[in-house]
Specification:
Radius of gyration: 37 Å
Strand order of the largest sheet: 1-2-4-3
Strand content: 5-15%
CATH topology of the domain at 51-120: Translation Initiation Factor IF3
Number of helices: 6
Largest sheet: 4 strands, mixed
C-alpha cells in the first residue's frame, strides 16, 4: 500500500483493504489426541456383592479362595472340619492374599473366618450388639435348658 493510498484511506475516500493473515498450520496438531472429559466410575450401592462359602478339605482350595478375593468377592471360610495344620496354612495363605489386596479378614465364629476385598466393609460393632441383644431376648431359653425342661 502506497503513501498516497494510505492518505486517501485516512481521509475516507477509499475503502480500507482487509489484510488477511495466513494462519500457519501446525502439522503436529492433526496427530494429537483431542481432549475429552474423563469418565470416572463412582461406587454404586446397588452393586451385587457375591459371598462365597468354602469348606476346604485340602490346601489346593486356598488358591480358589484367593482367586475369589482377587475377583472382589467376599469369602466365608469354614475350617471346622479341617485339621489344625491345614487350617493354619489356609489362614496364613488367605491372610496374605487379603493383605495384598488391601482387604480385611475377621473371625466370625469358632473355625470360621470372613475375608473380604477392599470394596466390602465389615461392621463388627453391629454384629456384637446384635449377639448381645439376642442373648438378652432368649435368656429364658437357657433357664429352661438348665432345668432340663422342654418348651
Amino acid at each position: 500500500m502506497s503513501m498516497w493510498d494510505k492518505f486517501l484511506n485516512f481521509m475516507g475516500f477509499t475503502e480500507p483493504e482487509e489484510v488477511e493473515e495466513e494462519l500457519q498450520e501446525n502439522p503436529f496438531e492433526e496427530g494429537m489426541p483431542k481432549k475429552r472429559g474423563r469418565l470416572v466410575a463412582l461406587p454404586n450401592s446397588k452393586d451385587n456383592v457375591k459371598v462365597m462359602v468354602v469348606e476346604p478339605t485340602n490346601f489346593d482350595e486356598a488358591q480358589v479362595i484367593a482367586d475369589n478375593l482377587k475377583n472382589r468377592q467376599a469369602v466365608i471360610v469354614n475350617l471346622e472340619s479341617a485339621d489344625y495344620q491345614l487350617a493354619k496354612r489356609i489362614i496364613d495363605f488367605v491372610g496374605g492374599t487379603t493383605y495384598a489386596i488391601d482387604g480385611t479378614m475377621q473371625k466370625i465364629g469358632q473355625g470360621i473366618i470372613l475375608a473380604v476385598p477392599p470394596n466390602v466393609d465389615i461392621n463388627s460393632e453391629l454384629t456384637q450388639n446384635y449377639v448381645e441383644e439376642q442373648e438378652e431376648v432368649f435368656s429364658w431359653v437357657s433357664k429352661f435348658a438348665k432345668k432340663g425342661e422342654r418348651f
